[in-house]
Task: inverse folding
């Protein structure tokens, strides 16, 4: 098949960049390592969490792992929520894409679906101000948000968060929230006027989850197994879009392929080089255009290597991230509904009145299906007392996950260092926040906790898992207005090339305080549409 | 029977401590396997002293656990307790010990007070044991 476009990566960016091209009839080849769960991994039953606990004698295999990899030792660290069944998401990364840092823990993926295979499914469009800070316009993204929402299936309610997000694309009815979240939301509605005046807003989290039949995917079953299940099609994973693309005759998926570099030949197209991910046998491909969608850090490696920029510093962005276990006092002693989902129940946006740009966003998760023993590790009383205590308090426990915004600075950068004697190149990352910034973040966290306290939710502890733990990375090949090396145009074409585009978060020059996956997908759709138009224009020009 | 009988004895003591019941043979096997897999089967220093003490006098497990929890950190000794808790929690026979328990607010307050009082008592008893273990390493 003569290839019009190669897309590197099968994650949220890759599949959503490929889709408009494939649907327009262009020949697309997707190159991917594409690791999948091991065949001998235990099958996770499609039954409610509470039922499994009482009846499945094999549950230890997927809750703890056959090598007990689900029992975390030491401090809470990045990827703590990656359950044993999802460990395949990070397989081979250390071997093929080593990083080196004392200040930043990166989580990357070579899985089929990329990090999207373990995505929390939160759907947050960026608003006008946030796009403006990236030298982009929200109005240019509206139709792409809509296209992606229809492709992935989004459910949610139009509530107090809607105006702050700049509006939502079409959504299915929202998922039901659990008993814990209901009480918090009810408390918010009683105190709404006072807290809104200070810039605090609360609503249900829009999620990439089906609440009704959508493109052959069923509605959510409310089994509370969302951190464990691999085959639950109600929650969006990029592999569902990949499965749709594979039905097209003009789409080819090539796995076990680790892309290392490209050579832009101008009008003659692009040569793409890589190797088999196991045998290391060299592979080469050619297409008219190339879209890099391998994830911010992987795409940066490919670009730096291809353009000969070893030991050149490029910026890196990452949302600073904090976990705060909380206890919801109104829920203490009450029975919780068993049927629920495990994803984010509520989202809070705090925009300080004196500095609305410096917004903070947090998600509220009820704690149950990640099991009690993980709480015992961190609690200050004996394990035996902890078991008794948490049994009584479990229905009222939750976790606040707080994201802060991030901007480019000289203290946050990465650079590619050549591997010696045939070893893989290493990406060196340095990331630090000034004391002024760190103090500001802590102050905002205290303010958010204060508002949740007013709703009945009291913080138990603050956990800082370290830089990199949000797993939101961006900015390495950012969009700029000026012509600088290792940056992209507004159309996401990589400067210094004619036929290479970047479709993942590498292009974002600012990270607002929220998950970015939905916007990554919308931008990837935008890139795919633009490349389709460009190919069409070139074909017309060639015919003429 | 494993080649580390002390690990099996440890499994019995820890399971009884955590949930008040003897572990099944399946649980014991899993505990031994987990210790080996996670590198917890070769304690040294004060961990070895504390474990030796508990194997001889199982009733000291509660005070030592309370003292270590209060001090914080991620000692091998305490990690073993968490490992057993994880194994018990993911077994249907013991799942009920880890499932949420509804209670009236009055009963909840009484239970929390009782647990708190017990925790303080255990801590007072366990702290000297910790100091002793550290002093003799």
Result:
């Amino acid at each position: 098949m003569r290839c019009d476009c190669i897309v590197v990566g099968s994650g949220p960016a890759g599949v959503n960049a490929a889709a408009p091209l494939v649907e327009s009839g262009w020949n697309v080849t997707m190159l991917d390592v594409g690791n999948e769960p091991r065949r001998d991994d235990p099958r996770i039953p499609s039954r409610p969490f509470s039922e499994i606990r009482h009846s499945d004698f094999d549950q230890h295999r997927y809750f703890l792992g056959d090598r007990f990899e689900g029992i975390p030792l030491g401090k809470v660290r990045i990827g703590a929520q990656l359950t044993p069944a999802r460990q395949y998401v990070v397989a081979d990364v250390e071997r093929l894409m080593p990083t080196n840092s004392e200040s930043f823990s990166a989580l990357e993926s070579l899985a089929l679906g990329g990090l999207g295979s373990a995505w929390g499914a939160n759907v947050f469009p960026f608003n006008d101000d946030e796009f403006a800070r990236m030298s982009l316009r929200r109005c240019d993204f509206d139709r792409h948000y809509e296209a992606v929402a229809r492709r992935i299936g989004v459910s949610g309610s139009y509530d107090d968060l809607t105006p702050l997000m700049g509006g939502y694309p079409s959504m299915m009815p929202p998922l039901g929230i659990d008993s814990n979240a209901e009480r918090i939301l009810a408390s918010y509605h009683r105190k709404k006027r006072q807290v809104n005046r200070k810039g605090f807003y609360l609503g249900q989290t829009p999620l990439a989850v089906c609440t009704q039949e959508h493109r052959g995917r069923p509605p959510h079953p409310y089994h509370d197994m969302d951190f464990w299940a691999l085959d639950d099609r109600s929650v969006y994973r990029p592999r569902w879009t990949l499965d749709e693309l594979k039905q097209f005759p003009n789409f080819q998926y090539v796995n076990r392929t680790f892309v290392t570099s490209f050579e832009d030949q101008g009008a003659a197209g692009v040569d793409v080089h890589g190797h088999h991910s196991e045998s290391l046998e060299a592979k080469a491909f050619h297409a008219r255009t190339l879209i890099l969608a391998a994830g911010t850090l992987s795409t940066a490696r490919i670009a730096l290597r291809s353009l000969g920029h070893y030991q050149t510093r490029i910026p890196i962005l990452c949302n600073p991230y904090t976990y705060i276990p909380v206890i919801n006092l109104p829920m203490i002693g009450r029975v919780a509904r068993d049927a629920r989902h495990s994803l984010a129940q509520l989202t809070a946006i705090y925009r300080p009145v004196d500095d609305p740009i410096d917004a903070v966003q947090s998600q509220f998760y009820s704690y149950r299906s990640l099991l009690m023993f993980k709480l015992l590790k961190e609690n200050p009383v004996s394990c035996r007392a902890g078991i008794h205590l948490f049994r009584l308090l479990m229905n009222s426990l939750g976790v606040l996950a707080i994201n802060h915004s991030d901007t480019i600075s000289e203290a946050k950068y990465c650079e590619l260092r050549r591997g010696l004697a045939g070893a893989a190149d290493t990406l060196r990352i340095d990331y630090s926040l000034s004391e002024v910034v760190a103090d500001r973040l802590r102050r905002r966290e205290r303010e958010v906790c204060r508002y949740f306290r007013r709703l009945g939710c009291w913080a138990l502890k603050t956990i800082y898992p370290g830089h990199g733990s949000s797993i939101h990375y961006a900015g390495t090949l950012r969009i700029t207005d000026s012509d600088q090396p290792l940056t992209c145009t507004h159309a996401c074409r990589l400067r210094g090339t004619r036929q290479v585009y970047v479709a993942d978060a590498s292009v974002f020059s600012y990270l607002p305080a929220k998950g970015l996956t939905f916007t990554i997908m919308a931008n990837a759709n935008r890139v795919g549409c633009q490349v389709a138009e460009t190919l069409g224009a070139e074909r017309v020009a060639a015919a003429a | 029977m494993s080649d580390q009988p002390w690990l099996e004895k440890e499994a019995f003591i820890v399971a009884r401590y955590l949930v008040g019941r003897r572990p099944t043979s399946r649980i014991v096997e899993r505990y031994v396997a987990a210790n080996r897999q996670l590198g917890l089967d070769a304690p040294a220093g004060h961990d070895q002293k504390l474990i030796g003490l508990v194997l001889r006098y199982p009733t000291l497990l509660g005070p030592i656990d309370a003292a270590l929890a209060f001090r914080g950190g991620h000692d091998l000794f305490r990690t073993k307790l968490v490992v057993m808790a994880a194994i018990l929690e993911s077994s249907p026979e013991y799942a009920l010990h880890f499932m949420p328990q509804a209670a009236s607010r009055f009963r909840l307050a009484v239970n929390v007070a009782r647990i708190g009082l017990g925790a303080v008592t255990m801590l007072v008893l366990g702290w000297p044991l910790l100091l002793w273990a550290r002093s003799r390493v």
Notes: Chain A touches chain B at residues 50, 53-57, 59-60, 63-64, 67-68, 70-71, 73-75, 332-336, 368, 371-373, 376-377, 379-389, 391-392, 394-395 (CB under 8 Å). Chain A has a mean pLDDT of 94. The first helix of chain A runs from residue 12 to 23. Residues 146 and 169 of chain A are 5 Å apart (CA to CA).
